[in-house]
Amino acid sequence: EDQVTQSPEALRLQEGESSSLNCSYTVSGLRGLFWYRQDPGKGPEFLFTLYSAGEEKEKERLKATLTKKESFLHITAPKPEDSATYLCAVQASGNQFYFGTGTSLTVIP
Amino acid sequence: DTEVTQTPKHLVMGMTNKKSLKCEQHMGHRAMYWYKQKAKKPPELMFVYSYEKLSINESVPSRFSPECPNSSLLNLHLHALQPEDSALYLCASSQGSGGYYEQYFGPGTRLTVT
Prior knowledge:
Chain A is built from no helices and eleven strands. By secondary structure, chain A is mostly beta strands. Chain A is globular, with a radius of gyration of 13 Å. The mean pLDDT of chain A is 94. In chain B, 34% of the residues are buried. At the A-B interface, strand 4, strand 5 and strand 9 of A face strand 9 and strand 10 of B.
């Protein structure tokens, strides 16, 4: 059964304290893995697309990596404005698009 | 420009009302989506339109009726909804479907059914 799991469910960091969020997946025929940021009451904001194991993408304090079984979103020296829910989503070969349950990140000044 | 717009932002409707949600994109995308999102849950896919044709219907009740008048517009017609249908309704679009394309989301319509 296709599945996308994110951990931890919630994460509290001090400003400047780097950490990583995990997205594990078991799908048939990965076509793409996507990271989104969502602020409360708003639509998800696209961050990254990863297509193959070993691929990395960076944007400001965020870096996304992909292996054959999981993806990590590394946050370096986070700031309070990085507080949000981070969602990963997977596009499988059967045209299915699965979201993980998200990680709620809080960065404390 | 990666903007998807949705109207209205908020909607309150009774269980006997008929209303419509609207979504528009001008990125030339050929796939458009409706999602439903409950509080503290990920978005749940409802419908996918590819090249203006309905390609995926995720067993959504018939009180939700999608329509794609053209490649830039997507509507969701609502009729006889239940209180449990209260949620954030998100529209998204992508360059194509069934493949390798990221989806871009609108801000959502917050729907309350009384």
